[in-house]
Amino acid sequence: MTFEEIRDKISKHLESGKSYGLVVPNKAYAKALLKALIRTSNVQDTMIIEPDTNIGIDEVRTVIEFLDFAPKGEIKKVILYDADKMTQEAANAFLKTLEEPPSYAILILVTSRWFSLLPTIRSRLQKLQVQLPIEPGLDEFERYLVYWNYDFLEPIKEKAYSILSEEEFLEAIDELDEPSQEPDVIMSLKHLLEQYLNKDLATYANFVSQLAKKNNIEFLRIVSKVVSWLIYKNDSLPPNLKIKYLRICDEILRSKIANFNYQLTYYTLLLGLRGDNL
């Protein structure tokens, strides 16, 4: 299905007076879909909650107060991203509203981890699960990246990224606050790792030692994404080691806090990638 067909299918499912759980591969894709769906809505009738950390009771109270008043138009919409980050206290305060929304309201809770939602929340939502449309012209790794972040689609389709030299790459890691640089860093890391994996252990370990100096949670997540892919594609690794390292990567990508021993984590993943233990 195309993006437009998926958007229209969701639009047909949405009814006022109901609560939905929109399950998507990544938040950027959900944003693109929902932006298209609410484009014609009255701004005053739409509330978007996008938490930096957890969704607490204050956010839920804000939603409830918003829904206490009738819409300016026909329908009020509430979009709550990262719904799996809702605390138990917030969920308890939200249950009645989710179960019986006002007749003029549509509530959409967005998550990429349906089973990480609290069971009491899941049971009150109509589940809408959508997949990424298959983009022609992308290779396996490019599709994998778009699965992680839909914002990468255009730069990847247009090949609007650079494969950096090692020196440029190490400098770029320190500037990861700029989202537009992320495709460059990801593609360059994959390229460099594939090169160094074919070198002797001492040379590879020296490269790893340079990466291990970067105490940056965003870069650690990028490393986890690239390592996950390379481990998945590495047929020489025993299944038990694949599972071990993929679990570490998943833990990093799920983590809401940056309390890692960075150096140890880099060495564990990157040496594990070629089957070498600490």
From TrEMBL:
Which GO terms are recorded in the biological process aspect for this UniProt protein?
DNA-templated DNA replication
Q: Which Pfam families match?
A: DNA_pol3_delta2, DNA_pol3_gamma_R_C
The record, for SUPFAM superfamilies, names: P-loop containing nucleoside triphosphate hydrolases
Q: Which residues form the Tm0771-like C-terminal domain?
A: 192-274
Taxonomically, the superkingdom here is Bacteria
Name the PANTHER family for this protein.
DNA POLYMERASE III SUBUNIT DELTA, REPLICATION FACTOR C / DNA POLYMERASE III GAMMA-TAU SUBUNIT
This one is known as Tm0771-like C-terminal domain-containing protein
| Organism whose genome encodes this protein | Fervidobacterium pennivorans
Instruction: List the taxonomic lineage.
Output: Bacteria, Thermotogati, Thermotogota, Thermotogae, Thermotogales
